[in-house]
Amino acid sequence: MTVALFSDIHGNITALDAVLEEIDRRAPDAVYCLGDLVGYGAFPNEVVERIRARAIPTIMGNYDDGVGFDREECGCAYTREEDRVRGDASLRWTRAAVTDDNKQFLQQLPAQLRLTIGPRRTLLVHGSPRRMNEYLFEDRPTSSFQRLAEGTDADLIAFGHTHKPYVKVVGDVTFLNIGSVGKPKDGDPRACFAIVTESSTEFVRVPYDIASAAAAIRATTLPEQFARDIETGGK
């Protein structure tokens, strides 16, 4: 069995379409989205509608929750004041842009999904098994990963949220961060997704028309930094 997993599109329809084209070319047995369809990018409705039209099973990200329920904050742990100000501007703009119908879709997304990939019991979440907005960075202490694995009944835990792909094996459990389609933060601006089999994981980087996606952001009132972020891969 081969499964394609992607996450964190963040309103970047150009990157999403490039990823979906590559997924179609590879023809996996199943495709799942790990959330954060909206926020930061210029095309939140288009992204939601593409996911809906293709009926891709999708879990709720913190930004989907913030926009879907018109919350005052997105659950993002901004450490710098300038990031918080830009994040608030993004949330306000996206809440105003997304249609009521698409907000209703975001509201009903599940918090997690389970599947079996060969013998691997797989848990799909956005941030962590505990919270959709918990950041699981690769350098977190091993003991923290061990505690997270306890009681999950999973051999593989797949997630996004940090926009930085990695694989970390802790005991009998594999933690898989699948990176970001629309807003990578690892210095590689290409869209990222993962192909998972019963015994392997492949990160796939997909080039797309970054210039047009950045221009679309600049044509809105969204902060200029968001355009620079996708041009530089978050560096």
CATH architecture of the domain at 3-111 and 179-232: 4-Layer Sandwich
Cα shape: globular
Number of helices: 8
Percentage of residues assigned to helices: 25-40%
Order of helices and strands: EHEHHHHEEHEEEEEHH
Regions with little confidence, pLDDT below 50 for 5+ residues:
none
Structural class: alpha/beta
Quote the average pLDDT: 96
Distance between the termini: 35 Å
- CATH topology of the domain at 3-111 and 179-232: the name is Purple Acid Phosphatase, chain A, domain 2
User: CATH homologous superfamily of the domain at 3-111 and 179-232 - what is it?
Assistant: Metallo-dependent phosphatases
* Rg, nearest Å: 16 Å
Overview of this structure, please?
- The protein has 235 residues and is of the alpha/beta class.
- It has a domain of 163 residues: Metallo-dependent phosphatases (Purple Acid Phosphatase, chain A, domain 2), CATH 3.60.21.10.
- Helix content is 35%, strand content 19%.
- The protein contains eight helices and nine strands.
- The strands form two sheets. Strands 3-4-5-7-6 form a five-stranded mixed sheet, with helices on one face. It has a four-stranded mixed sheet with strand order 2-1-8-9.
- Strand 6 and strand 7 form a beta hairpin.
- It is globular, with a radius of gyration of 16 Å.
- The N and C termini lie far apart (35 Å).
- The model has no long low-confidence stretch (mean pLDDT 96).
